[in-house]
Amino acid sequence: MRTRGKILGFVFLAALVLIPLSCFYVLFGGGRSFWDLRGAIDVIVFDPLARWVALGGRDVGTARYKDHGDVKLCDMKTGKVLHLVALPDRPWAMAINHNGTLLSTYAPMTGSSYDLTVFAIPADGTPVRAHEQTLNFPSKDAFGFVGRYLVCAGEKQLAVIDTTDWTVLNTVRSYTQSPALDPFSERIALGQESNGYPVVLCWNLGAGEPKQLTDAKLPLAFLPHDKLVAALSREPGGLALWPEMGAAPHQSLPDSTGEWSGVCVSKDGQSFAAWSGDGTVRVWKCDPRGATVVSRLSVPRVCYALPTSVADALALEVERRVTMKQRSDGGSEVASYDAGGAGLWSMSQGKRMVWFEDRDILIQGSLLAVYLRGAEIVSVWDVSNLVQPKLLWEDRWRHGGSLFE
Fold it and tell me: What is the torsion angle, in degrees rounded to the nearest 10, for the CA atoms of residue 394, residue 399, residue 404 and residue 405?
C-alpha cells in the first residue's frame, strides 16, 4: 500500500508540473491548441496509375496550428509516406490528371477568395509547386482535369485553365446543373434551360463552341470514342446513347424508362451504371451495337454507383437516414438513425459482399480506399477476392503523425 501511495503521489506531482508546462507551450507558440490534437482528413484521391494515394486535410503530416493544410502522398500498397507538401489552408478538393503528373488542390482564403495550387509530379514522385492563382468563387460543383485542362465550377461560374501555359480560357457561363467532365478526352457538359426546358450543352474544350445535345438532359456521362449516355428530355424519358456531341440519340437503352438521379462510367469505359431515387440500380455493358443490361439491383438510398474492374463487383454509396419524432413538449428528437456507408455488391448475386458503415470509398483497380470525412483514419484494401478482402494498411493520425512514417 505504501508503494502504491508513492506511485500515486508521483503521478499527481508530475501532472502538476507537466500540465502547466504544456499549456505554456501551446499558448506561447510552441505547439497546437487542445482543439487541434489530431489531424483531419478532408479529401483523398488516387493516382490513376495506382502508385500512391494523396491525403489532404488539416495537420495530416506536420505539427501546425489549426486550420492549416497539408497533402501527404502515401504508397498505395504499404501506406509508407512518400512526400509531404504544405498548404496555406486545409484543402476542400483535390484532383489528379489522367497520367498522375499533376496534382491540384483548392482551399479557402480570406473573404470570398480561394487558393488554387497545382503541383507537378515528376518521375521521382517529388511534388513541385508548378502554378498558383486565386479564384473568386468556390469550386464546389466540379473540380477536375479534362485532358490538358483543369476545370473549376461553382456558384454558376466556370473557369477552364490550360495547363500547358496556365492561361484561363474565357469560359465563364451560367449553368443550372453541375457540369459533367469527360475522363477519356477533353469534353465537358453543362445543364441549362431554354424556354423553360432543360437542355445540355457539350463542349470540346480544344475545338470550337459548345453544341446542344439533341433531346438530352442531365444526368450525363461520357463514354470512350466520343459517345455519351444521358437522360432523354422527351417522352417516355429514360436513358439513351448518343454517337457524338450535337447528334441525335442513337439508341434508347433497354430497361431504362423513368427518371434517373445519376449515371457513372467505369474507369475502363466498358460499362456504366445508373441509379434513381426509388433505389433502382441498373448496369449496362457497352458493346459495338450499343449497350445491354447486365445487372438489376434494388438498393434504397443509393447516392453513387460505379462498375469496377473487379469481376462482378459494383461499388455503391448509401445515404445516411435520420428519422425524427415529436415530443409532447413540442420539441423533436431522433427516433432512429442509419449511418449509411459504402461497399461492393455482387452484380450476379444481387447482394452486398463488402460493407463499411458510415464510410466513403474510392476504388482503383482492385484497391479500395475507405475513409471517414473529417476523421483521422484511412485504410486501403485489396478486394480482388470479394469474399475475403485483405487489409493492406491503415493510417491513424495523432499530432499529425502516421503509423507508417
Answer: 160
Type of residue numbered 9: G
3-class secondary-structure state, position 101? coil
What is the structure's pLDDT at 373?
60
Cell of 369: 480506399
User: CB count, 10 Å around CB of 154?
Assistant: 19
**pLDDT tens digits, one per residue of 168-179:** 886 656 788 888
Contact 368, 383 (CB under 8 A): yes
Q: What is the pTM of this model?
A: 0.81
Q: Which amino acid is at 11?
A: V
Distance CA 116, CA 139 (A): 10
The CA distance from 351 to 126, in Å, is 42
Residue 248 is given by DSSP the state: P
User: By 3-state DSSP, what share of the chain in percent is helix, strand and coil, each rounded to 5?
Assistant: 5, 50, 40
Single-letter residue type at 114: Y
pLDDT tens, position by position, 328-369 = 787 787 777 777 899 999 998 989 999 998 888 889 889 998
DSSP 35: G
Going by C-alpha positions, the residue among 205, 203, 232 that lies closest to residue 220 is 232
The answer to whether the CB of 103 falls within 8 A of the CB of 119 is yes
User: Phi/psi at 246 (nearest 5 deg)?
Assistant: 85, -5
Query: What residue spans define the domains of the chain?
Result: 9-38
CB atoms within 10 A of CB 347: 21
CA 102 to chain centre: 17
* Residue 322 to residue 358: CA distance in whole angstroms: 13
Phi/psi-derived region of residue 172, left when phi > 0, alpha when psi is between -120 and 50, beta in every other case: beta
**Rg of the chain taking only CA atoms, in angstroms:** 24
Q: Which amino acid is at 216?
A: A
CA–CA dist 362, 41 (Å, integer): 14
| Model pLDDT, residue 330 | 76
Low-confidence ranges of the chain (pLDDT < 50): 6-8, 10-39, 63-65, 398-405
- With a CB cutoff of 8 Å and minimum separation 6, the contacts of 349 are 312
